[in-house]
């Protein structure tokens, strides 16, 4: 109300003001993207209070600029010892010409008080008191004795203005978002209405472009003040898509920064809940996922703002390092098979989406940093476990692409994974990475040669009519020569596996402790397509 009614007064006295909107939620005028019109003054220093609306009877008696902001008002007498920092001391009745005023001025300045309000009297403060107050830069003000309590009441309202405005903003937004259906566009519009500046919601790449000084690798609230006075309030939105909410304020008062931070926290809470609900809704619609992936691939990874928005709603993260996965089933994929694959991936701790792409499925893993080789080795091991858990009736072929960065890297890695999956031989395990595709191609060509088949038929002839022993031998060799793993895969006891291995070595007259023998018979089993 002060800036609206008496703008000249506020400019002359240097009262700093900031407002987002009146109580009815309407936005005020803006300058440089930030609202500067205010309905209430924001109290800074005691010497600026004299003459403000409601404080016309208050006047400055010491020509001393204040150095401490006013954050509280306290009724005292001249002998008080309890003086706190940033408080405005108000003496209701006192002998202002007494030496006790000199002592109170010294105590107040030492404690960091904002100033002292005295009752008008004759005679007034001595020249010595005024000189001490001037030297210690402690403002002295005076008001008629019968108006002192009215002055105190007005001061308390002025001091509480920031909290009142913050509560107004929070309550208005909480009321608008109460049913949880307000999407990001509505939330951003409400924040803009309250703060007078357009907030930004985006992923790491978008935020780095808008505000490169924000540490998006640290998922914590950040408030950055630039040399030109611009303040960036940034808050991460927890969730798999790694969204950030940014609010830019041009030369704002501290109170507006504080109110923006509070409003951003409320907005983040709502956005997190909305994204979770939206993600669950979209995950039930597999066609939406397929369309989004198809659009991203059609753009060759050049993610538009629309694609980024849809990806955020889906819970997909486009920034970071991606490893593409491609799953090729033996028959046309269906919903039941997809659900089995998704459950199998969760069972081996692979947090990948499963998105249908043609007659196969695509997936990927995302991390902040480039994966180390050990991670790829563990990933291949887990994918083999997942493939085994799918059952013999679903012999998947799985391809793994290279780790690549950003949305363009995601598309490239998916293309690599697709090429590997289409070329991998199920007889070599059915799981291959781009870096090892040459090895699998070599083994596949070797197994398809007539020499390999002739050797296999000859070497395994003694077991040709005993499929149990053949299956046990193939499973044992494909399980890294582990009796425990072999028993688990065959569903029998370890002692049963040991007994079968003894019969195999006796029948074939071989020593399975010899690595060359194990390699030769493993290739022989695969050449004859012995199931393992």
TrEMBL record:
Family indicated by similarity: Belongs to the CdaR family.
Annotated transmembrane regions: none
Record-given protein name: PucR family transcriptional regulator
Domain (CdaR GGDEF-like) ranges: 301-420
Ranges in a coiled coil: none
InterPro entries: CdaR-like_regulators, CdaR_GGDEF, PucR_C-HTH_dom, PucR_C-HTH_sf
Provenance organism: Phytoactinopolyspora halophila
Domain PucR C-terminal helix-turn-helix: 469-527
Highest taxon of source: Bacteria
């Amino acid at each position: 109300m002060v800036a609206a009614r008496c703008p000249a007064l506020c400019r002359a006295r240097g009262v700093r003001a900031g407002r987002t909107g009146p109580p009815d939620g309407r936005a005020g005028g803006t300058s440089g993207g930030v609202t500067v019109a205010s309905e209430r003054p924001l109290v800074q220093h005691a010497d600026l209070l004299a003459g403000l609306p409601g404080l016309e009877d208050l006047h400055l008696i010491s020509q001393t600029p204040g150095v401490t902001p006013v954050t509280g008002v306290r009724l005292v007498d001249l002998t008080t010892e309890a003086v706190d920092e940033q408080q405005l001391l108000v003496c209701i009745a006192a002998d202002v010409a007494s030496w006790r005023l000199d002592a109170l001025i010294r105590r107040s300045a030492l404690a960091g008080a904002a100033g002292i309000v005295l009752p008008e009297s004759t005679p007034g403060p001595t020249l010595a008191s005024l000189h001490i107050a001037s030297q210690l830069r402690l403002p002295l003000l005076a008001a008629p004795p019968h108006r002192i309590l009215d002055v105190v009441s007005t001061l308390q309202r002025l001091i509480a203005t920031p909290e009142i405005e913050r509560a107004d903003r929070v309550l208005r937004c909480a009321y608008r978002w109460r049913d949880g259906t307000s999407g990001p566009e509505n939330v951003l519009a409400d924040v803009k209405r309250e703060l007078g500046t357009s907030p930004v919601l985006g992923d790491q790449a978008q935020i780095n472009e808008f505000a490169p000084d924000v540490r998006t690798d640290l998922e914590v609230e950040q408030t950055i003040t630039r040399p030109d006075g611009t303040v960036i309030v940034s808050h991460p939105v927890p969730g798999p898509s790694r969204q950030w909410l940014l609010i830019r304020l041009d030369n704002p008062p501290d109170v507006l920064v504080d109110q923006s931070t509070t409003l951003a926290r409320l907005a983040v809470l709502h956005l997190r809940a909305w994204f979770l609900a939206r993600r669950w809704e979209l995950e039930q619609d597999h066609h939406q996922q397929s369309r989004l992936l198809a659009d991203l691939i059609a753009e060759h990874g050049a993610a538009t703002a629309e694609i980024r928005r849809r990806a955020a709603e889906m819970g997909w993260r486009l920034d970071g390092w991606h490893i593409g996965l491609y799953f090729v089933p033996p028959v046309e994929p269906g919903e039941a098979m997809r659900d089995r694959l998704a459950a199998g991936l969760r069972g081996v701790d692979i947090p990948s989406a499963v998105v249908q792409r043609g007659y196969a499925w695509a997936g990927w893993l995302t991390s902040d940093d480039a994966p180390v080789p050990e991670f790829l080795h563990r990933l291949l091991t887990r994918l083999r476990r997942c493939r085994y858990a799918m059952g013999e009736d679903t012999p998947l072929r799985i391809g793994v692409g290279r780790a690549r960065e950003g949305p363009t890297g995601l598309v490239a890695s998916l293309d690599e994974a697709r090429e590997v999956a289409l070329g991998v031989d199920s007889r070599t395990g059915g799981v291959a990475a781009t870096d090892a595709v040459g090895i699998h191609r070599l083994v596949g060509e070797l197994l398809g040669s007539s020499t390999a088949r002739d050797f296999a038929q000859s070497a395994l002839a003694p077991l040709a009519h005993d499929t149990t022993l053949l299956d046990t031998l193939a499973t044992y060799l494909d399980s890294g020569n582990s009796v425990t793993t072999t028993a688990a895969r065959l569903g029998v006891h370890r002692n049963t596996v040991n007994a079968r291995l003894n019969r195999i070595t006796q029948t074939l007259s071989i020593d399975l402790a010899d690595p060359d023998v194990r390699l030769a018979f493993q290739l022989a089993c695969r050449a004859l397509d012995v199931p393992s």
